[in-house]
Design brief:
about 180 residues; mainly alpha; globular
Length: about 180
């Protein structure tokens, strides 16, 4: 295995503009069937987190009175403690009224079977593509690009590396070089 040369993957360079995020959320929140997927996008962007962690986020990780989120990231095991913006906190309170009876913040609701569960790994991208199509946004925008967009915006705004690392869970500043 040591003799096998790894092929360098092409660096991803797709970023969401603020207008694209706004358009996506307006379209997604306008239709109840996309509400949870829109909330996953909203949280991933606002907090600079992976959509995978947002799809498994449980109510116990949120303090909606203090507008605070406490998460242990699945990839790095890093503990992240972040404020919740006023708009997102308002949306989360509405979501809690409707779905606080079960564990997941942004569950998949199967209306025909009355089931509520978390989204599977392969269920997020097709739904995001549906919203992108309905909102006339390019399909090159992906859920994975949201974290990159948020981190890049933090860097451009002058947030120091320590602050960014507290959000992303990285322990090595070199890990932020791709951003």
């Amino acid at each position: 295995v040591a003799l096998v040369q790894a092929k360098a993957s092409k660096q991803r360079r797709v970023y969401w503009s603020r207008d694209q995020i706004k358009t996506f959320l307006e379209k997604g929140y306008s239709d109840f069937r996309w509400r949870s997927i829109s909330l996953i996008v909203h949280m991933a962007y606002d907090w600079g987190q992976r959509t995978g962690d947002m799809r498994t986020l449980i109510w116990g990780a949120l303090d909606l009175d203090q507008c605070r989120m406490d998460l242990t990231q699945s990839k790095r095991g890093a503990d992240v403690h972040l404020p919740i913006s006023q708009n997102l906190c308002k949306m989360l309170r509405e979501q809690h009224k409707d779905f606080g009876f079960q564990d997941y913040v942004a569950p998949k609701v199967s209306l025909d079977r009355g089931q509520v569960r978390r989204y599977g790994l392969n269920e997020i991208a097709p739904l995001i593509n549906e919203v992108l199509d309905e909102a006339n946004l390019p399909r090159e925008l992906t859920a994975m690009s949201l974290r990159r967009t948020a981190v890049t915006e933090m860097m451009e705004a002058g947030v120091d590396l320590v602050g960014i690392m507290q959000v992303t869970g990285h322990v090595n500043p070199a890990s932020l070089k791709p951003y």
